[in-house]
Every structure is written in C-alpha cells, then in structure tokens.
Amino acid sequence: LDGLEEQCREYKKLGAQFAKWRAVIKISHHAPSQLAINENASTLARYASICQQVYNEWTKSFETKCLFILDYFKNLSGI
After folding, report:
1. Is 26 domain-assigned?
2. Which residues contact residue 27 at a Cβ distance below 8 angstroms, ignoring those fewer than 6 apart?
3. What is the reported pTM?
4. When you count CB atoms within 10 A of the terminal residue's CB, does the N or C end of the chain come out lower?
5. Cβ atoms 18, 55 nearer than 8 A
6. Residue 61: helix, strand or coil by DSSP?
7. What's the per-residue H, E or C state across 15-73?
C-alpha cells in the first residue's frame, strides 16, 4: 500500500473514478491460516480507507471476488 494514496490522486486527476484491489487466497485443508485471513482483512480495510478518502465514494472503492482452485474442489467432490 506504500504510495497508494499518491497514485490514486494522480489517477483521479487523469479521470479515474475508482481503484480495484484483488487478493488471491489459496483454499485447502490447511489454508488460509487465521493469520492470512487477518492480514488480508487488514490490508483491504486500509486500502478501502485510502480510496474512500481520495475518491470520496464508498461504493466504488472496492469489490470482492472469490477465485477457486479447481483441483482442490475436484478432490472434495470426487470428480
């Protein structure tokens, strides 16, 4: 997140209206760890706060998305 606020301000001057943050988290029997969940939640909250300050709109600040690793779910379902 270093420099994110400055980058957002520059992009806003160029016409950007929002920013997007993505985190890929591996899902398995042992992952994600509680530490990984906590760190990602903290990072997303810091990111959202910066974007809200720069773009002055909460609804455009972030989007969440789940990406699944197919092999893990194949093993669970027996495919």
Report:
1. no
2. 68, 69, 72
3. 0.67
4. C
5. yes
6. coil
7. CCCCCCCCCCCCCCCCCCCHHHHHHHHHHHHHHHHHHHHHHCCCCCCCCCCCCCCHHHH
The closest alpha carbon to 57, from 20, 21, 18, belongs to 18
- From the CA atom positions of the chain, what is the Rg in Å? 16
The four Cα atoms 33, 36, 38, 41 give a dihedral, to 10 degrees, of -130
Instruction: Give percent above pLDDT 90 in the chain.
Output: 24
23 located within any domain: no
Give the rounded distance of the alpha carbon of 39 from its chain centre. Answer: 11
**How does pLDDT run across 41-62, given as a tens digit for each residue?**
899 889 888 888 888 765 455 5
Type of residue numbered 36: A
Instruction: Tally the domains of the chain.
Output: 1
